[in-house]
Design brief:
The chain is an alpha/beta fold and 240 residues long. A 7-stranded mixed β-sheet has the order 3-2-1-4-5-7-6, sandwiched between helices. Strand 6 and strand 7 form a beta hairpin. Helix 2 packs antiparallel against helix 5 and helix 3 packs across helix 4. The longest helix has 18 residues. The chain is globular, with a radius of gyration of 17 Å.
């Protein structure tokens, strides 16, 4: 975990021994559960620390629009969280966050609940739901200051999955790898339909690596029209 500690220190955000221990426990639980269900193809400790933990939290030190994450009790939803990335690392590092982890596979949600319990995390819950169903849930729709996602899908699809959760003037932050210019270009119609506006496009390289990461920051300018999200599977088959 030394690389994670150094990364936080370099960004003027010291990480405590308790937090490092939580990351250590999370890693151990991830690897153990990965023996019986597919959570991650990345299992070497140094790789997990860089490609999952540092990658998850690097958004906070890169995106100026979410500086308040460090000192405010914001509501954040991680859509398509999988094994808990980026939601759990963000929660460990910023305990005041109020976090919802959303995933469509119940086995993963059960694992996430085990992690939450074992790490003693408060104000965080895992919910079993497809994004399209969650986006129409009155308790979740228009509820969050920030939505994040590392899910692998094109930006127009992700926008329909995530923006319904976000409050007006809140943000969706998409974690992307590789080139994103074409995706941004292709997202113009979806942004118009869903009342979103790209306000930042941040490109970084993860420390001591050649791994490129892009953060596309979308501000929600008005409530999501009632027509969205469309029924399950439609966004993927017929992207906006």
């Amino acid at each position: 975990m030394n690389k994670l500690k150094s990364f936080c220190n370099e960004n003027n955000y010291p990480i405590s021994e308790k937090q490092l221990a939580q990351f250590e426990t999370y890693y151990e639980m991830l690897i153990e559960k990965n023996k019986v269900m597919n959570l991650t193809a990345i299992t070497e400790k140094e790789d997990v620390v860089l490609k999952h933990f540092i990658d998850s939290v690097s958004m906070v030190f890169s995106v100026t629009k979410v500086d308040g994450l460090k000192d405010k009790k914001l509501k954040l939803i991680d859509v398509g969280t999988g094994a808990g990335f980026p939601g759990i690392p963000l929660k460990i590092l910023f305990p005041d966050l109020d976090v919802v982890l959303l995933d469509s596979l119940n086995k993963r949600v059960n694992f996430l609940n085990e992690v939450i319990l074992s790490l003693g995390l408060k104000d965080i819950k895992a919910i079993h739901s497809r994004a399209e169903e969650g986006g129409r849930n009155k308790e979740l729709r228009d509820h969050f200051d920030i939505a994040v996602s590392r899910a692998v899908a094109n930006l127009p699809i992700l926008l329909e999955y995530t923006l319904p959760f976000v409050k007006k003037n809140g943000y969706f932050i998409s974690y992307k790898s590789g080139e994103v210019d074409e995706e941004i270009l292709n997202a113009s119609h979806a942004l118009k339909c869903l009342n979103g506006d790209i306000v930042e496009d941040i490109r970084i390289t993860l420390p001591d690596s050649d791994i490129k990461r892009s953060f596309i920051v979308v501000k929600k300018t008005a409530p999501t029209p009632k027509a969205y999200p469309r029924k399950a599977g439609t966004a993927k088959k017929e992207p906006l």
